[in-house]
Amino acid sequence: MKLFTMLLSLAFIASCGGAEPESKAPKADAAAKPAPAEKPAPKPEPKPEPEVKAEIVVDDGTVVTINLTASDAMQYNTDKIEIKSGRTVKLNLQHVGKMPVDMMGHNFVLLASGTDSAAFAAAGVTAKDTDYIADSMKDKVIAKTKMIGGGASDSIEFAAPAPGEYDFLCTFPGHSAIMKGKLIVS
Ligand SMILES: [Cu+2]
């Protein structure tokens, strides 16, 4: 009788013991799966827009520095530059593109007040040797950089002209339709 009871309880324990791990195992599995490793991947990235844009015009009271860029998209980084008269102007032109000067050359040419910039550009279309500035129009130029290709830069210095509005442009054929702007001196 005692032995039978013992066997019975052993069988009971065995069956219990057999059932327990089965019910525990999936629980532990389910708990372990979603918790680690999968969350970091789809973290939302809150783009903070770095905008580490250099100032285009920096005036220290004596020298005004103009940081002009020109791109393969045939664009300057500004079409309006405002400065004060009496300053020495240091203009840095940087071609931030990659295309060669023969295909996407850029320069900066500042024209005397009242110059017809379209006529100026048209006159120079065939004057490749002089950066597309016609001899007949030379006297309209207040200041100019070299014609440069992708990755190159040129810096020039000139005295700020008298208060007024002045056109500037890129003289590479066709560019001045877009690559033009106003220098406003006050
Ligand atoms: Cu250009």
Q: Overview of this structure, please?
A:
The chain is an alpha+beta fold. The protein has two domains: 31 residues; 129 residues, Cupredoxins -  blue copper proteins (Immunoglobulin-like). It contains three helices and nine strands. The strands form two sheets. A five-stranded mixed β-sheet has the order 3-9-8-5-6, with no helix packed on it. A hairpin with a 3-residue loop joins strand 1 and strand 2. It is globular. It starts with a helix and ends with a strand. The relative contact order is 0.16. Bound molecules: copper (II) ion. The site of copper (II) ion has 7 residues, from loops.
Bound molecules: copper (II) ion
Largest sheet: 5 strands, mixed
Number of strands: 9
How does the overall form come out from the CA principal axes?
globular
Total number of domains = 2
Query: How many distinct helices?
Result: 3
| CATH topology name of the largest domain | Immunoglobulin-like
Percent of residues in β-strands: 25-35%
In short:
Helix content is 23%, strand content 26%. By secondary structure, the protein is of the alpha+beta class. Bound molecules: copper (II) ion.
Q: Topology of this structure?
A:
Layout: H1 2-32, E1 57-59, E2 63-70, E3 80-83, E4 88-95, H2 101-104, E5 109-111, H3 117-123, E6 141-144, E7 153-159, E8 164-169, E9 180-185
Parallel strand pairs: 2-4, 3-9
Antiparallel strand pairs: 1-2, 4-7, 5-6, 5-8, 8-9
Bound molecules: copper (II) ion (CU).
Residues 70, 105-106, 170, 172, 175, 179 line the site of copper (II) ion.
